[in-house]
Amino acid sequence: MMTNRRAESLAVQLVTVVLLHALSALTANAAEHGLDQATSDALDSAIGGEHRSAANRARDKYRHPKQTLAFFGFRSDMTVVEIWPGSGWYTEILAPALKNNGTLYAAQYSVNPPRAYQRRYFGEFLSKAGSAPTVYGDVIITALDFPDELEIAPRGTADLVVTFRNAHNWVARGYGEGSGRLSFEAMFDALRPGGVLGIVDHRWPDADNEDPASANGYISEKRLIAHAEQAGFEFAGRSDLNRNPRDTHDHPEGVWTLPPTLALGDDDRDKYLAVGESDRLTIKFIKPTD
Fold this sequence. Notes:
This protein has two domains: about 1-30; about 35-285, Rossmann fold (3-Layer(aba) Sandwich). Helix 9 links the parallel strand 4 (about 160-165) and strand 5. It has helices at about 5-30, 35-45, 55, 60-65, 65-70, 90-100, 115-130, 135, 180-190, 220-230, 270-275, and strands spanning about 80-85, 105-110, 140-145, 160-165, 190-205, 220, 235-240, 280-285. It is built from eleven helices and eight strands.
């Protein structure tokens, strides 16, 4: 018959094995995404946080926030600038993930933006920040507006600048003279040497036939690379994380035909819900060190 001491020893060994397996799984999960454990844990906590709405959580399957930030080289101790965060979908993740050890700048529209959607999103962003100070209280709000408000963070201090589904606007009509050039110059200036710029946007597949004004909301990778390189960036890589092969790129109301906007309302709603959110490019650049 097994003695109590031996039974206790076996129980301790069993618990130790279980804990080691759990720790190994956690470490493997972090390594799989190229993240250190602290950053992986910070992102998991932020993505699963109760401050996020059910509607925003539902978009994770299209936007792949943890994998996307990992591709950009995100760490929870970085100084990060989010450009034009809108109502703050990504800010919900970045702010708590950076709260303890990093810094987040939210470079919003100007205080008096020209577009109705900008006013609406900026208002939603400020309401969100005010309603949850424990989450957003450390976020530093700046502005990117053309041609005068270009200091999105102190020059040469950011480790990472990210922008999600905004760059197509900077080549469109009505956003200010030279906005395409000035936006990339502002991001370049904010980054330290060796810092990274990460961009996600609605992908137009063929640069030879894209709309020069991006009125349909799409932009080609080739065009974005040209703007970035003109500002001094070096191309550092691409990912297919946010690609959607079901997107045919030819919708009656452009990219806004698709969810989450569903610009046609109930017309063909099920069809566009089946497509899902847009086909998106995911690319990154580095600011040279010399």
